[in-house]
Amino acid sequence: METYHSRKKVFLWNTSIETMINQPNWIEMLSKVIHSFLTRNDCILLWRPHPLLLSSIRSMRTNYEKPYLNLIKTASSLDNVIIDHENDVYTAMRESDALISDYSSIMIQYSITGKPILCLTGTSQMRESKCNLFDYWSNYFLNDGVSVDIFCDMVLQGKDPKNRNVSSQ
Protein backbone atom coordinates (compact mmCIF):
# COMPACT_ATOMS: atom_id res chain seq x y z
CA MET A 1 0.00 0.00 0.00
CA GLU A 2 1.29 3.43 -0.93
CA THR A 3 1.82 5.85 1.93
CA TYR A 4 -0.86 8.54 1.77
CA HIS A 5 -0.39 10.03 5.20
CA SER A 6 2.24 12.54 4.11
CA ARG A 7 -0.23 14.24 1.75
CA LYS A 8 -3.63 14.27 3.47
CA LYS A 9 -5.42 13.00 6.56
CA VAL A 10 -6.53 9.40 6.08
CA PHE A 11 -9.82 8.08 7.46
CA LEU A 12 -9.90 4.31 7.71
CA TRP A 13 -13.43 3.00 7.17
CA ASN A 14 -14.24 -0.52 8.26
CA THR A 15 -17.45 -2.29 7.22
CA SER A 16 -18.32 -5.54 8.95
CA ILE A 17 -20.65 -8.45 8.35
CA GLU A 18 -22.45 -8.16 11.69
CA THR A 19 -23.80 -4.70 10.95
CA MET A 20 -24.77 -5.70 7.41
CA ILE A 21 -26.86 -8.50 8.90
CA ASN A 22 -28.41 -6.61 11.82
CA GLN A 23 -28.88 -3.01 10.64
CA PRO A 24 -31.94 -2.57 8.41
CA ASN A 25 -30.57 0.79 7.18
CA TRP A 26 -27.09 -0.59 6.39
CA ILE A 27 -27.02 0.43 2.72
CA GLU A 28 -28.19 3.92 3.66
CA MET A 29 -25.43 4.14 6.30
CA LEU A 30 -22.78 3.18 3.74
CA SER A 31 -24.20 5.62 1.23
CA LYS A 32 -24.02 8.49 3.73
CA VAL A 33 -20.34 7.79 4.46
CA ILE A 34 -19.43 7.67 0.78
CA HIS A 35 -21.46 10.78 0.02
CA SER A 36 -19.63 12.63 2.80
CA PHE A 37 -16.43 12.16 0.79
CA LEU A 38 -17.89 13.06 -2.63
CA THR A 39 -16.92 16.71 -2.35
CA ARG A 40 -14.00 16.47 0.06
CA ASN A 41 -10.56 16.95 -1.44
CA ASP A 42 -8.92 17.61 1.91
CA CYS A 43 -8.70 13.98 3.06
CA ILE A 44 -8.68 10.35 1.96
CA LEU A 45 -11.18 7.61 2.77
CA LEU A 46 -9.45 4.25 3.03
CA TRP A 47 -12.31 1.72 2.88
CA ARG A 48 -11.69 -1.81 4.14
CA PRO A 49 -14.76 -3.96 3.56
CA HIS A 50 -14.67 -7.23 5.49
CA PRO A 51 -13.05 -9.86 3.21
CA LEU A 52 -16.21 -12.00 3.30
CA LEU A 53 -18.68 -9.13 3.03
CA LEU A 54 -19.70 -9.56 -0.61
CA SER A 55 -20.09 -13.33 -0.31
CA SER A 56 -22.14 -12.79 2.86
CA ILE A 57 -24.36 -10.31 1.04
CA ARG A 58 -24.85 -12.82 -1.76
CA SER A 59 -25.83 -15.57 0.65
CA MET A 60 -27.70 -13.67 3.38
CA ARG A 61 -28.94 -10.31 2.03
CA THR A 62 -29.32 -10.73 -1.71
CA ASN A 63 -31.32 -7.51 -1.98
CA TYR A 64 -28.20 -5.59 -0.87
CA GLU A 65 -25.98 -6.84 -3.69
CA LYS A 66 -26.91 -4.36 -6.41
CA PRO A 67 -26.90 -1.25 -4.18
CA TYR A 68 -23.65 -2.39 -2.54
CA LEU A 69 -21.93 -2.90 -5.90
CA ASN A 70 -23.19 0.52 -7.00
CA LEU A 71 -21.63 2.05 -3.89
CA ILE A 72 -18.35 0.26 -4.64
CA LYS A 73 -18.49 1.66 -8.18
CA THR A 74 -19.16 5.19 -6.90
CA ALA A 75 -16.38 4.96 -4.32
CA SER A 76 -13.93 3.56 -6.87
CA SER A 77 -14.55 6.54 -9.14
CA LEU A 78 -13.53 9.07 -6.48
CA ASP A 79 -9.94 10.33 -6.36
CA ASN A 80 -9.97 10.52 -2.57
CA VAL A 81 -11.30 7.00 -1.90
CA ILE A 82 -9.17 3.87 -1.82
CA ILE A 83 -10.76 0.45 -1.45
CA ASP A 84 -8.27 -1.66 0.45
CA HIS A 85 -8.36 -5.44 -0.03
CA GLU A 86 -4.88 -6.07 1.39
CA ASN A 87 -4.47 -8.99 3.77
CA ASP A 88 -2.65 -6.82 6.30
CA VAL A 89 -4.97 -4.46 8.20
CA TYR A 90 -2.09 -3.09 10.27
CA THR A 91 -0.68 -0.97 7.44
CA ALA A 92 -4.06 0.73 7.05
CA MET A 93 -4.29 1.22 10.81
CA ARG A 94 -0.81 2.74 10.94
CA GLU A 95 -1.31 5.01 7.90
CA SER A 96 -4.70 6.32 9.00
CA ASP A 97 -5.38 9.29 11.25
CA ALA A 98 -8.84 8.21 12.41
CA LEU A 99 -11.29 5.32 12.14
CA ILE A 100 -14.92 5.24 10.99
CA SER A 101 -16.46 1.90 11.90
CA ASP A 102 -19.21 -0.13 13.40
CA TYR A 103 -18.38 -2.28 16.41
CA SER A 104 -15.75 -4.77 15.24
CA SER A 105 -12.45 -6.44 16.04
CA ILE A 106 -10.65 -3.72 14.05
CA MET A 107 -12.24 -1.09 16.28
CA ILE A 108 -11.02 -2.90 19.38
CA GLN A 109 -7.47 -3.07 18.01
CA TYR A 110 -7.60 0.52 16.75
CA SER A 111 -8.61 1.87 20.15
CA ILE A 112 -5.08 1.13 21.36
CA THR A 113 -3.66 3.68 18.90
CA GLY A 114 -5.33 6.58 20.71
CA LYS A 115 -6.54 7.96 17.38
CA PRO A 116 -10.15 9.20 17.12
CA ILE A 117 -12.90 6.71 16.32
CA LEU A 118 -16.37 7.48 14.96
CA CYS A 119 -18.81 4.66 15.74
CA LEU A 120 -21.57 4.23 13.19
CA THR A 121 -23.68 2.14 15.56
CA GLY A 122 -24.65 2.50 19.20
CA THR A 123 -24.57 5.58 21.43
CA SER A 124 -22.44 6.69 24.34
CA GLN A 125 -25.57 6.48 26.53
CA MET A 126 -25.45 2.68 26.21
CA ARG A 127 -22.58 2.87 28.73
CA GLU A 128 -25.18 2.62 31.50
CA SER A 129 -26.44 -0.82 30.45
CA LYS A 130 -23.60 -2.53 28.54
CA CYS A 131 -20.16 -3.85 29.38
CA ASN A 132 -17.20 -3.95 26.97
CA LEU A 133 -13.63 -5.20 27.00
CA PHE A 134 -12.30 -1.75 26.11
CA ASP A 135 -13.52 1.82 26.47
CA TYR A 136 -15.92 1.73 23.53
CA TRP A 137 -18.13 4.39 25.08
CA SER A 138 -15.54 7.19 24.99
CA ASN A 139 -15.52 7.20 21.19
CA TYR A 140 -17.59 9.51 18.99
CA PHE A 141 -20.99 8.21 17.89
CA LEU A 142 -23.03 8.97 14.80
CA ASN A 143 -26.18 8.42 16.88
CA ASP A 144 -25.00 11.06 19.38
CA GLY A 145 -25.03 13.68 16.62
CA VAL A 146 -21.43 13.50 15.40
CA SER A 147 -21.82 13.21 11.62
CA VAL A 148 -19.08 11.96 9.33
CA ASP A 149 -18.53 15.56 8.16
CA ILE A 150 -18.27 16.89 11.72
CA PHE A 151 -15.84 14.07 12.60
CA CYS A 152 -13.68 14.72 9.53
CA ASP A 153 -13.58 18.46 10.19
CA MET A 154 -12.64 17.84 13.82
CA VAL A 155 -9.72 15.56 12.85
CA LEU A 156 -8.58 17.88 10.06
CA GLN A 157 -8.51 20.80 12.52
CA GLY A 158 -6.47 18.75 15.00
CA LYS A 159 -9.26 18.90 17.56
CA ASP A 160 -10.22 15.97 19.73
CA PRO A 161 -12.39 16.86 22.73
CA LYS A 162 -12.12 13.29 23.98
CA ASN A 163 -8.34 13.77 24.25
CA ARG A 164 -7.21 11.23 21.70
CA ASN A 165 -4.06 11.70 19.67
CA VAL A 166 -5.00 12.98 16.19
CA SER A 167 -1.58 12.57 14.61
CA SER A 168 -0.49 9.26 13.13
CA GLN A 169 2.00 7.29 15.16
From TrEMBL:
The keyword Mitochondrion does not apply. Pfam families: Glyphos_transf. It is an enzyme of class 2 (transferase). GO terms for molecular function: CDP-glycerol glycerophosphotransferase activity. Its EC number is 2.7.8.12. Keywords: Transferase. InterPro entries: Glycerophosphate_synth (IPR007554), TagF_C (IPR043148). GO terms for cellular component: membrane. This is CDP-glycerol:poly(Glycerophosphate) glycerophosphotransferase. It comes from Sporolactobacillus inulinus. The lineage of its organism: Bacteria, Bacillati, Bacillota, Bacilli, Bacillales.
